[in-house]
């Protein structure tokens, strides 16, 4: 079938093209895309930090409606509302151990441009393959995806807001709820109050953390963090965050810190603010190396620094929980989001980069009504 999609080439970041999309195989699902979030990971492909073969259709925070399900698909059917998550194999040790985010085949399944069949369902009219991204390529009007990419969600919830649950918001909240798993009353600090950081902050509130401290360099974002549950805010342009956090925590430091910026100096601050036996989780894609002294910065206080991919989440388990939290007002994604038309995709990326929009969401189905 023909679809409209924003294609990333060697010459242009985005060019709207008509492509051919393969019908779903027995284990695949055809989804009409309603909306797709714009994520920092898409931007890291554009700048070459994470290489993906071009031409490609990016986008990996899609939400939509099932049009057709393959003959072996059992979890969804035509008409179901779904969020598209990342691709994972389902059979490696980590997947079988309940950690799909640590799938041993994560990189080829999400960044090689091809699916588990070593194919892409996207093609030009002259039969040139177009790379699929994250097993979905949601910057197109339709997507053919593996069943494991699809998460059924409540039809009563506005689909336009749900796409980011498939990556950025799942990463932030999952890092807190799954990987750090803080006990109620433990102290939590988030460094960087973008979409990932704020979703982690909202998850920390759900988990019962206290205090909840937000660190950033933008006062407007810090005010939003306070609205979403931060008990304390720190502008690191004006205060030393590690010293201030020690003051807030009665000299002991925080139990947990969550680093989302990828800036080496911020990662060190996220370590230095911890108490003895504290844990720092990082999800950031940074461009500069971090240099630290293993003895003084880590071992002497028995600290843990851990990298987390996709919130250590199984999308089919975490996303429905987040949708329930969103529906009952405990995960107010609408306060982070701004809608853009697909044709305004470059503006959406620019607004994300300059910080004027925390979570841009592209609307691909303008006729959809919640």
TrEMBL record:
InterPro entries: ADH-like_C, ADH-like_N, ADH_Zn_CS, ER, GroES-like_sf, NAD(P)-bd_dom_sf
Keyword Oxidoreductase among UniProt keywords: yes
Residues covered by the Enoyl reductase (ER) domain: 12-362
Enzyme Commission code: 1.1.1.90
Record has Zinc as a keyword: yes
CDD domains hit by this protein: benzyl_alcohol_DH
Cofactor (UniProt): Zn(2+)
Molecular function terms, GO-annotated: aryl-alcohol dehydrogenase (NAD+) activity; zinc ion binding
Gene3D superfamilies the UniProt entry points to: Medium-chain alcohol dehydrogenases, catalytic domain (3.90.180.10), NAD(P)-binding Rossmann-like Domain (3.40.50.720)
Keywords: Metal-binding, Oxidoreductase, Zinc
Enzyme class, first EC level, given as a word: oxidoreductase
Pfam families: ADH_N, ADH_zinc_N
Entry's family note: Belongs to the zinc-containing alcohol dehydrogenase family.
Protein name: Aryl-alcohol dehydrogenase
Species annotation: Bacillus safensis
Gene that this sequence comes from: xylB_1
């Amino acid at each position: 079938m023909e679809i409209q999609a924003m294609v990333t080439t060697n010459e242009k970041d985005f060019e709207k093209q008509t492509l051919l999309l393969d019908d779903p195989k027995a284990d695949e699902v055809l989804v009409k895309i309603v909306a797709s979030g714009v994520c920092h990971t898409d931007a890291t492909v554009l700048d070459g930090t994470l290489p993906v073969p071009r031409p490609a259709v990016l986008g990996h925070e899609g939400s939509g409606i099932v049009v057709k399900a393959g003959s072996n698909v059992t979890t969804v059917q035509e008409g179901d509302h779904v969020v598209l998550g990342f691709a994972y194999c389902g059979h490696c040790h980590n997947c079988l151990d309940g950690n799909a985010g640590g799938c041993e085949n994560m990189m080829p399944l999400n960044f090689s441009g091809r699916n588990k069949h070593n194919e892409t369902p996207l093609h030009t009219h002259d039969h040139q393959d177009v790379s699929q991204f994250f097993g979905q390529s949601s910057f197109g009007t339709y997507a053919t995806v593996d069943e494991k990419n699809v998460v059924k969600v409540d039809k009563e919830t506005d689909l336009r807001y749900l796409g980011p649950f498939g990556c950025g918001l799942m990463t932030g909240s999952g890092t807190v709820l799954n990987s750090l798993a803080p006990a109620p009353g433990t102290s939590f600090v988030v460094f960087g109050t973008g979409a990932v950081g704020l979703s982690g902050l909202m998850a920390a509130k759900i988990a019962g953390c206290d205090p909840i401290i937000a660190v950033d360099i933008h006062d407007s974002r810090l005010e939003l963090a306070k609205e979403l549950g931060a008990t304390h805010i720190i502008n690191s342009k004006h205060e030393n965050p590690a010293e201030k956090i020690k003051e807030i925590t009665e000299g002991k430091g925080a139990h947990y810190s969550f680093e989302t910026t990828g800036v080496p100096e911020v990662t060190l601050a996220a370590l230095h603010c911890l108490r003895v036996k504290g844990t720092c989780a990082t999800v950031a894609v940074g461009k500069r190396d971090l240099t630290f002294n293993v003895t003084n910065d880590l071992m002497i206080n028995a600290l843990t620094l851990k990298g987390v991919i996709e919130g250590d989440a199984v999308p089919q388990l975490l996303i429905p929980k987040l949708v329930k939290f969103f529906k009952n007002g405990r995960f107010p994604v609408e306060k982070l989001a701004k809608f853009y038309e697909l044709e305004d995709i470059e503006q959406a990326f620019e607004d994300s980069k300059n910080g004027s929009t925390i979570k841009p969401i592209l609307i691909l189905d303008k006729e959809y009504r919640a």
